[in-house]
Amino acid sequence: MTAVQKVAIAGAGVAGLATAIFLAKAGVEVDLYDAQPALSTRGSGITLQGNALRVFDELGVWDEVAAAGKAFEGLNLRAPGPGAPVVAALPDLKTGGPDYPSTMGMSRPDLARILLAAAERHGARVHFGTRVTGVSQTDDGVAVEVDGKPAGTFDLLVGADGLHSAVREMIGIHVSPEQTGMGIWRTFVSLPPDVDRSELYYGGPMYIAGYTPTGEDTMYAFLVEAAQDRSQATPEEARRIMVEQSRAYDGPWNHIRADIEAGADANYTWFTKHLVEAPWNRGRVVVIGDAAHSCPPTIAQGAAQGLEDAAVLSELLVERDAVDQALWDAFHERRVARAKAIVDASVQLGQWQLDGVRDADMGGLMFGVAQLTAARA
């Protein structure tokens, strides 16, 4: 007997689709609503660490993810300037355990397609071009309004609708993402022959210059700068800015620049942070993933934490027989402190750079996060 028989989910991102898969596999009736007209086919890459890969296995999609992405071990640090020499080759802790690689890069659209197909295969109904616009709760259920019309009464509504979650606002949680002071340029390019793992450059005009393989012949690259208003930049201007800002970086960056000059897109976003303090639920409505917490990608744990939210919430809903305070207490005990530790560490890494702290123990902080995420959520 599960605690829920019928669940609505807002948002077809990683956390929402993972929740849909877990619950549909357990026989729960799932309706997922997403405001986008269709699954996005645009996007750069994503870095996934072992704790995320472990959840993909629990979802039953690990083989597909492994085939679509690029697994690797370790991290190289390069110096800016001529030749871009490798100054350190760092090992990675296998946070998912010995059965998974330490890290994988892949295309975000590829990951989304895999998760959507799995959700639908297990019986979840996914409704694109639809927006949750209202909720009304009783002790036994939550009436959900979609596009201004009643969509039915559910045992639970999961708000996995991202940074600017409408569900979060609907239930009276008035927390919004805050800028951290950094912005990031991203591009999706072909894979240079001499790149087989993530590499980061510290120093030079950017706070960080880096890239991650996402397949046998693709990778995404990024430059992190002080946050600026780049909203008026045309696609041509964006490419020009990213090319010019990367000129201090040699080695594989010469290949990246050539791809950008040939027409690869350059996209810009700001780093943000937020954390909803416990509780993440209001009655039978709960927020997870980026709706509950966000952090800069300095530790590459954003998607992994959303996946862990989905895994823990679904486990409790399937194993227990009531949506009660004991269930929510168990959920918050396993998720809130862990998510806060990731947000705090991710922000701290960026703040050290903004403040010019030269003796910061970045390695120690990252190792501590790896130890934390190696333990199951």
Could you explain how this protein is built, in words?
The protein is an alpha+beta fold and 377 residues long. Helices cover 34% and strands 29% of the residues. The protein has an eight-stranded mixed sheet with strand order 6-5-14-15-16-13-17-20. Strand 5 (75-78) and strand 6 form a beta hairpin. The model has no long low-confidence stretch (mean pLDDT 95).
Summarize it.
By secondary structure, the chain is of the alpha+beta class. 34% of the residues lie in helices and 29% in strands.
Number of H- or I-type helical stretches: 10
Distance between the amino and carboxyl termini: 23 Å
Q: How would you sum up the global shape?
A: globular
Largest sheet: 8 strands, mixed
The share of residues in extended strands comes to 25-35%
For the CA atoms, what is the radius of gyration? 21 Å
Mean pLDDT: 95
Low-confidence stretches: none
* Content-based structural category: alpha+beta
Order of helices and strands: EHEEHHEEEEHEEEEEHEEEEHHEEEEHHH
Helix content: 25-40%
SSE order and pairing:
Blueprint lengths: L5 E5 L3 H12 L3 E6 L10 E5 H10 L2 H7 L1 E3 L2 E4 L7 E5 L12 E5 H14 L3 E4 L3 E6 L4 E5 L2 E6 L1 E4 L6 H5 L7 E13 L7 E5 L5 E6 L4 E9 L8 H11 L6 H10 L4 E10 L5 E2 L2 E3 L5 E2 L7 H18 L5 H30 L7 H13 L3
Parallel strand pairs: 1-2, 1-12, 2-8, 5-14, 12-19
Antiparallel strand pairs: 3-7, 4-7, 5-6, 9-10, 10-11, 13-16, 13-17, 14-15, 15-16, 17-20, 18-19
Helix pairs in contact: 1-4, 1-8, 2-8, 8-9, 9-10
